[in-house]
Design brief:
Two copies of one chain form a homodimer.
Chain A: E1 4-7, H1 16-26, E2 30-34, H2 35-41, H3 43-53, E3 56-64, H4 71-91, E4 95-99, H5 108-128, E5 132-135, H6 152-162, E6 167-172, H7 173-176, H8 182-189, E7 193-198, E8 200-201, E9 212-213, H9 222-231, E10 238-240, H10 245-248, H11 252-267
Parallel strand pairs in A: 1-2, 1-10, 2-3, 3-4, 4-5, 5-6, 6-7, 7-10
Antiparallel strand pairs in A: 8-9
Helix pairs in contact in A: 1-3, 1-11, 4-5
């Protein structure tokens, strides 16, 4: 259990304090935070709640959303990413997850260039503050509206071209399981894996955004994923991040109990 | 217009005779047929309707669905693919589209091996009858339930390893537009492109299966796709295949009129 982390999106209706208390109660030592609930609780109050509870913040979601149709949008995106870095520092985490953003202005190629340029601009700012930027390739069904970065290989190509030590990737089973090339790309990623997130793919898919599943309820085989990220050298926290309305509407403690059980049986490194 | 083809899935509620009549009325010289409506009309009657109208059959959908959890399922899948080949011969088309099938028995890797093995078994049978098998990589959101083949590169890897002249691929814009590697893979495909299908990706996506869009209503830029398949040497029919309940419930002649207009403006080779 020393690596299990509750990404607070899994318990969407809990405040930061409630999620922290839930982790303590369940014996979970890490939490992945989202900026909106952190803002609702207050940044300092969230940091204090985590500190007082003696748990650690595995990552902050999310920076990104770089593609912009106007100069004003572009400047806003850069400012927002710098703010995410600042918030990560206060919260005591070294990792900001980047959901890079969908197509802006109808131009996929330019949107992809903007993602790369944006990360390149924010990376030195983050590095000065000891923060790493973790590019999260999202499932290709989100290419239009959430992330023009859709494969691990593509994310690593971006990281390679930028060449900043503090730019790496997220390996998320939900987004990557279908990719025949994913094992080679995880090996290629090596120490550039900054976060490992798990949840399952339900079949049939109940909903594009909110139909993710608890590990064991879908088609993903987690063992090879955990083995591959371990073999690549990853030893950090393992976040469970589940967007699922049914789970969100279930009692939090029961969700965490199931999560711990499934993690132990299906995900935990050998 | 000499290359435009109506894939009859676009006019789901039309019988074969109605779809053929609709093509004649709209001046469309090709039709892509599906086995279920062909069976409903009768195989010979369908072939006769097409012949009498003087139009040509661009492809028959669909073979595939190879992954099988039992020996009985496997034998049924092979028999069904041979039947698809036989039906293509009667209908006068040289191309059977393969929707390869989703995960059987919870084993993605075995399912992928079964796809390759199945195509390898059916290919000589098809070759003797002058029929080509066109592997259609489907969007990764269909990996669990419809096709474990999800990228053009993966489809070409299968075709390469099998090494049969009559095994190639389908390029479908809906399934492939998100892939940063698609241009290189279309060039690699060259003469192994056996079919080119178009429809748009709507944003937001109304439905995983039935939310495809008329060209121009979504985010896909068709010009580079047409240019790429042309540059690869493809000179065959261009099928419009749209799974969309709203379009299905619209009057067929109006759908075809819009389809012709959008094809002329957005898709047609220069």
């Amino acid at each position: 259990m020393d690596r299990l982390s509750l990404n607070q999106k899994t318990t969407e209706h809990w405040s930061v304090e409630e999620a922290v208390a839930g982790c303590v109660e369940a014996g979970i030592g890490w939490i992945g935070l989202w900026r909106e609930p952190v803002a609702a609780t207050g940044l300092e109050a969230s940091a204090e709640a985590v500190r007082r509870a003696g748990i650690r913040v595995s990552s902050l979601c999310r920076g990104g959303f770089f593609p912009s149709a106007t100069d004003a949008d572009w400047e806003r995106a850069l400012a927002d990413n710098r703010a995410a870095v600042d918030e990560a520092v206060v919260l005591g985490t070294d990792t900001v997850v980047l959901v890079c953003g969908g197509i802006a202005g109808g131009d996929l190629d330019r949107s992809r260039r903007q993602v790369e340029e944006g990360i390149g601009i924010v990376a030195p700012y983050a590095a000065e503050r000891g923060v790493r930027l973790a590019i999260e390739p999202l499932h290709p069904m989100f290419c239009a509206d959430r992330s023009v970065i859709v494969t691990l290989g593509q994310a690593l190509d971006v990281a390679d071209r930028l060449g900043h030590d503090n730019v790496g990737v997220v390996v998320d089973t939900f987004h990557l399981w279908w990719d025949p090339d994913v094992w080679d790309q995880i090996a290629r990623a090596g120490e550039r894996i900054f976060a490992y997130q798990v949840c399952d793919w339900l079949d049939p898919l109940p909903d594009v955004l909110l139909g993710r599943g608890m590990m064991g309820d879908g088609v993903i085989d987690f063992r090879p994923f955990t083995d591959a990220v371990q073999a690549a050298g990853y030893r950090g926290p393992i976040e469970v991040e589940i967007f699922n309305e049914e789970i969100w509407n279930s009692p939090g403690p029961a969700v965490l109990a199931t999560m711990v059980d499934r993690y132990e049986r299906l995900v935990k490194p050998a």
